Automatic annotation (TrEMBL):
Belongs to the BCAP29/BCAP31 family. May play a role in anterograde transport of membrane proteins from the endoplasmic reticulum to the Golgi. It comes from Allacma fusca. The keyword Zinc-finger does not apply. It is a multi-pass membrane protein. This is Endoplasmic reticulum transmembrane protein. One of its GO terms (cellular component) is endoplasmic reticulum membrane. GO terms for biological process: endoplasmic reticulum to Golgi vesicle-mediated transport; intracellular protein transport; protein localization to endoplasmic reticulum exit site.
């Protein structure tokens, strides 16, 4: 459980950093049409920031899904154990009832 909390916090920090970079590079205050190399560099940095945002968001989503699946699997295991215990208890009571 502690590992998932650490991963969620780390993913949120990475997403916030990607959002900050996207805002920084999508700022159109300066003229990039003068130098095509500068324009290409700015678009490359914006593309990388957007890519990092999508990758980190997808990683956060998958970690939430994995956490939910692991919770459901542990609950299912506990319910199966309870079911088997109740079944054994009922069969033993039934056997003792028929002995009398």
């Amino acid at each position: 459980m502690l590992m998932f909390q650490y991963l969620h916090k780390r993913s949120l920090v990475i997403i916030n950093d990607a959002i900050r970079e996207m805002r920084n590079y999508s700022n159109e205050d300066y003229d990039l049409n003068v130098n095509p190399k500068a324009e290409m560099q700015a678009h490359t940095k914006l593309f990388r920031a957007q890519r990092n945002f999508y990758i980190s968001g997808f990683a956060l989503l998958l970690s939430l899904i994995i956490r939910r699946i692991s919770t459901l699997l542990s609950q299912q295991g506990a319910l199966q154990a309870q079911n088997e215990a109740a079944l054994k208890q009922s069969t033993s009571r039934c056997d003792t009832f028929f002995l009398f």
